[in-house]
Amino acid sequence: MSGREPGHLGRDEVAHVAKLARLDLTDDELDRFTGQLAQVLDHAADVAGLDLADVPPTAHPLPVRNVLRPDRPVPSLDRDDALAAAPDVEDHRFRVPRILGEAP
Amino acid sequence: MSEWETVVGLEVHCELKTETKLFCGCRNAFGEEPNTNVCPVCLGLPGSLPVLNEQAVELAMRIGTALGCDIRPSSFHRKNYFYPDMPKDYQVSQYDEPINLGGALDLPDGTRIGIVRAHLEEDTGKTTHIGEGGRIHSADHSLVDYNRSGVPLVEIVSEPDMRSATQARAYAAELRAVLVATGASDGRMEEGSMRVDANVSVHHPGDPFGTRCEIKNLNSLRSLARAIDYEAARQVALIEGGDTVAQETRHWDEDAGQTRSMRSKEEAYDYRYFPEPDLVPVDPDEPWRQRVAGSLALLPAARRSRLVDLLGGHPTAAQSEQVLSAVDQGLDDLVVAAADTGAPAALALARAANEVAADVDAGRSLDPAAFAKLLTMEAAGLLSATQAKDVLADLLAAGGGDPEAVARDKGFEAMSDDSLADVVRQVVDANPDEWARFRDGDDGDRKKLSGFFTGKVMKATAGKANGKAVAAELDRLRG
Amino acid sequence: MNAIQIADDVRSGRRSARSVAEAALAAVAAGDGDVAAFLLVTGDAALAAADRVDEVVAAGGDPGPLAGVPVALKDNLCTKGVPTTCGSRILDGWRPPYDATVVDRLRAAGAVVVGKTNLDEFAMGSSTENSAFGPTRNPRDTSRVPGGSSGGSAAAVAAGFVHLALGSDTGGSIRQPAALCGVVGMKPTYGAVSRYGLVAFASSLDQIGPFATTVADAALLFEAIGGHDPCDSTSLDRPAEPVSGSLDAGVQGLRVGVCAELVDGVDADVAKRVRQAADALAAAGASVREVSVPELRYGLSAYYLIAPAEASSNLARYDGVRFGLRVPADDVAAMNTATRTAGFGPEVKRRIMLGTYALSAGYYDAYYGQAQRVRTLVIRAFDRAYADVDVLLGATAPSTAFPLGDRVDDPMAMYLSDVCTIPSNLAGHPAISVPFGTGDDGLPVGVQVLAPALAEATLFRVAAAMEAAAPPTTGAVAAAPGASGEEPVR
After folding, report:
1. Residue A19 is assigned to a structural domain of this protein
2. Scanning B229, B313, B319, C241, which has the fewest C-beta atoms within 10 Å of its C-beta?
3. Residue in C320, C357, C369 closest to A17 by CB
């Protein structure tokens, strides 16, 4: 996961990121977003440039550990409630259009 | 042309035998009506949050202990990608801080296969593809059932230490036995509670490892072995033909007996792993670790050595097979218990592996005392082998009983020496040509014909004769 | 009249919960046309809930500390069977099959939920202009923003429609709108209030918190919703901090640090009010000094890497498969894309992309990884500061409410609104904004008190002392007089 220096954020990169995020941008949006994101990242350059090799990252603000739940069943949703908001249902399952590839 | 060596590493996903899912209280059950075991958490509804199942951690620790792993403080990460069977479009898994690190699995033949890690993660839902043949590539649409979504998994990654399909199969079989022994999983590949993916590459020994391909869709140990053999051959043919092996994921097609390329892109997908902010780290304390270590059931390897020790330490090839079979079928406890009450160990083992194995479930609940008594009767010559097997069948059906009483009811008594000698004489007289060959032939002839005569004697005595006694009598007659 | 008084009246039977609810609903009906604080008014359910409270009282029981008090909920809090949109087209019409834990607790305390309030889409914004359903207007001046992202809840309280409201605060989304609207808004210690049922924006930063017209009311609401929840692994294993009882303890001997980084760089008229508040605390017996916590300056950048990163992952589930909007397409990936493209507004898309980029292979260490280290720096800096002071003081927002439309095309300018509030989210510390006079333009100014983790009692104490000495907030309120015929909020 290491490697690249924070660098110039180009249009191609933004287009690639949009694809990863399943977002379709118009050319106009692509241009605008590229500019805006670059601005935010420029501002973040002050952070990127700090030497923090000896500073551990904080994933959680407060040091909590070992939050566990006993292995006892709790009533599930009624199937009708689970499916109620589904855009498309078939055979008590969530129906989606065809899946073109296997999971990555 | 120097020889090719196959290199195999296996990734095994095993579903944990918990009552409930990894992060919610929905039941962890197979084969139920679709979408009946779901809730906001395992459906990934907005606002839902995960809470870790204590028993899943316990079972992961048992697996780690059984595989000799280092059980460590661990944390969870999100693995981000879109797929309809993933309710949150990220999978909660473990990345750089897995619960179990390192370890090894010893195969029955003594080979040691290294384990890289064994970590916790959640399972996805199940998709059914509707359209031509139910295969994803020709489907018109798909249906998703989230009953399985959130079921706890432990993913066990081996080092690339295996060098053949046979070895890989042995690893998978032994791992399954270990998983079952720890109570962590029921290891059913056909039901999907144990899923095996194989990483296969080829190289010339001494050279660096070649490019590997990942093989998926292996639904049985047999498929695993077939797929590895096919893939290794495919790669060798490619390289020898001047091509290179592309790093990719391939799908095993059971019917065609081939692996097929699944993904067109060669580059690795960007999962954007980052620490799961909705969960806190897990650090099992010392008392918990001790409890797990102390409560671990006897593992298959230890069960096998236990039987070998009972035999006195130098098993014959046949006995080694019996040891594997008895442990594999869960009948070793019976053998040990019978031997403990005085029955001859080798006979106990043989009967368990051969006869009791015909009805394994009955065998596992057979009263060891009854079994032991029967074996002692046989060993003392009170019953012939055939008679003993008959009585055993009754005992199995009844779960126990008194072998003496059963034998009596069947009218089994050992034949007296005189009556046996008479029958042998009669059979010999009735088969003069064979007798001549037996008397004058070489070792090979004698062995074969001894069997011939014994068979005749058995038939004539309706199985009452003792095989060894017949052989002894034949030898005596031969002079 | 405030929430405490209402609850008192209802519990004692002097007033019916129904009459209180009716008045609130009438105020909304009369005035929300100009403010647009509410996305949904749940009138029938409110009256039914009020009736149940009255039944309990009639039977001699105690309906709870918030008996009959009308409450508004930010529309990113799940309400069972009641639409929860998060201000987004992608959830338009979605009815959660469950209630957020805080909603359960409100009902258990006897509160009456009156409706769901407007917000910046998925809580991303500082002006409530990013809502897919139109902006909310500041009741003080309806040509201006109420702040965000909890603009609707802040406005509902400021306009006098309700006495209490809940919002969520990830980078200042309770405190900043509270300041701009002239009401009290508070963010608890991370983990003090359950997030179960709060539609996640940035999981390690989000907290639910109270809006109220008085510090005492905010304290009561905080106590009602706080405390351990087994459904939230990040919720602290302790009950809510008791704070109401010590509100009047005063600030004698407490050490207050006026934090340079939260004052320098804000508008002069805002800074003036901060100093005025500091003086008031000194006059009340606190020991006030100037302090500097330089690392706080890195907070903005770290936040705008961490929050979008977590959001990009939290918002992946909006894919048209199980709930919400679906835009049809031939294959599922195309359907995901079409749905998200149509369903998300530009600010949400911007942040998803920023976050996806910050997490992507090759950039993780430089951006997200680095931001998490800066977070540690900020926490350590706060710890050092709190060795010498009990609370910090500063501005809540750098300016008073800005005009609608002023910053929509300049995301960076919008992000800078959060510079004073973000550090508390990064550290997981509690903070509160208390109305303290006006700016030169007559618009409300909020002064912020910050305290270490779990120091809510001290936080509220200082806030109460400030409130007691606060100059009035003048200026006409855009909406009709409040729920019980009371004076408009100061």
Report:
1. yes
2. B313
3. C357
Q: Are residues B127 and B209 in the same domain?
A: yes
Is the ipTM beyond the 0.90 threshold?
A: yes
pLDDT reported for residue C466: 98
Q: C403: domain CATH number?
A: 3.90.1300.10
Distance from CA of C177 to the nearest CA of B (A): 23
H-only helix segments in C74-145: 101-108
In the predicted structure, residue A3 carries a pLDDT above the cut 70? no
Q: Is residue A83 part of a domain?
A: no
CATH code assigned at A16:
1.10.20.60
| List of chain C residues with pLDDT < 50 | 476-490
Give residue B436's domain range.
417-478
* In a shared domain, residues B334 and B426: no
Tokens of B243: 């091509």
Q: What is the pLDDT of residues B297-345, one digit of tens each?
A: 899 999 999 999 999 989 999 999 999 999 988 899 999 999 998 899 9
Same domain, B76 and B134: yes
Residue corresponding to tokens 């008895």: B326
Q: Which residues of chain C does B78 touch, with a Cβ-Cβ cutoff of 8 Å? A: 313
- CA triple C216-C217-C221, angle to 5 deg: 120
Q: Which of B372, B388, B409 represents a domain boundary (last residue)?
A: B409
Contact criterion met (CB < 8 Å) for A99 and B84: yes
Between CA C203 and CA C101 the distance in angstroms is 16
Contact residues on chain B for C96, CB-CB shorter than 8 A: 40, 45-47
Within-domain flag for C252? yes
The whole-number average pLDDT for the span B382-395 is 89
B363, with CB counted inside 10 A (0-12, 13-18, 19+), is buried
Per residue in A78-97, pLDDT (tens digit) is 999 999 999 999 999 999 99
- Best of B20, B23, B48 to disrupt the C interface (most C CBs within 10 Å) is B48
| Residue B357: per-residue pLDDT | 87
Q: What is the pLDDT of residue C483?
A: 41
Q: What is the CA angle B376-B378-B380, rounded to 5?
A: 70
Examine the domain organization and report whether B172 and B244 are in the same domain: yes
The partner residue sitting opposite C316, judged by closest CB among B48, B52, B80, is B80
Asked whether residue B370 falls in the same domain as residue B333, the answer is yes
Residue of B nearest to C355 (CA): B272
Is residue A101 scored above 50 in pLDDT? yes
In a domain? residue C190:
yes
Query: Which contacts qualify for A76-81: CB closer than 8 Å, 24 or more apart?
Result: A76/B26, A76/B27, A76/B36, A76/B37, A76/B38, A76/B39, A77/B38, A77/B39, A77/B40, A77/B43, A77/C97, A79/B33, A79/B35, A79/B36, A79/B38, A81/C97
C197, B279: Cβ pair inside 8 Å? no
Out of C88, C126, C127, C149, pick the active-site residue: C149
- The reply to whether B376 and B240 lie within a common domain is no
Which domain range does residue A22 map to?
8-50
Number of other CB atoms surrounding residue B447 within 10 Å: 12
CB contact under 8 A, B47 and C78: yes
B259 lies in the same domain as B306: no
